[in-house]
Design goal:
elongated; mainly alpha; about 0% strand; Non-ribosomal Peptide Synthetase Peptidyl Carrier Protein, Chain A
């Protein structure tokens, strides 16, 4: 038996207590610190993929911006010579009120900031960049400017093009101003 004890001294692991191995390197009060270190290491490993994803998103946004800018410049170049007057004359040939056509053209240029000449067939959303709320606001503002009444049930179809907008304004009834009664 004595020889067995001597042999145990040769093997350092036998007869000695080992500290408990805990997951994530936790040792008592240092658990928060080691968790932060692990999180920092993980974030450090993720920086390259996150950078590439961010770069791809920025490049996509830049391409959309440049495409839109190029399209507007192309429309302005292709439509040179078109004016408010040619717009109103074109629609007058089809029975539209030239004053309503001029007012609509001016409004779209000044208030909706359309920077290129407008054609009657332009799509309000795709070509002019007006969403549904902007189209509704435009309709109400133009009805006020032309002295017409807003009737929500008047529209049989949605407003898609500029000529649809002019047609709706022209079809709207004029406001009737009731005379003021005199107080007795």
């Amino acid at each position: 038996m004595a020889s067995a004890g001597r042999n145990c001294d040769l093997i350092p692991a036998i007869g000695r207590k080992h500290p408990k191995v805990r997951p994530w390197g936790f040792r008592g009060g240092n658990s928060i610190m080691s968790t932060l270190i692990n999180v920092q290491q993980w974030l450090g490993e993720q920086i390259v993929p996150v950078f590439f994803i961010g770069f791809a998103i920025l490049m996509g946004i830049a391409m959309v911006y440049l495409s839109a800018h190029s399209r507007r410049a192309s429309l302005a170049r292709d439509r040179s010579g078109r004016t408010e007057e040619t717009f109103a004359e074109y629609l007058a040939a089809y029975g539209f009120d030239p004053e309503i056509a001029r007012t609509t053209y001016r409004y779209l240029q000044e208030y909706q900031r359309v920077t290129f000449p407008i054609l009657p067939v332009d799509d309000l959303d795709r070509d002019l960049g007006l969403d549904g709320d902007a189209v509704n606001q435009t309709l109400r503002d133009l009805l006020d400017q032309t002295g017409r009444q807003y009737l929500p049930g008047l529209l049989a179809s949605p407003l898609v093009t500029v000529v649809d907008l002019v047609r709706t304004i022209q079809a709207s009834p004029r406001l009737e101003f009731a005379p003021r009664r005199r107080s007795a």
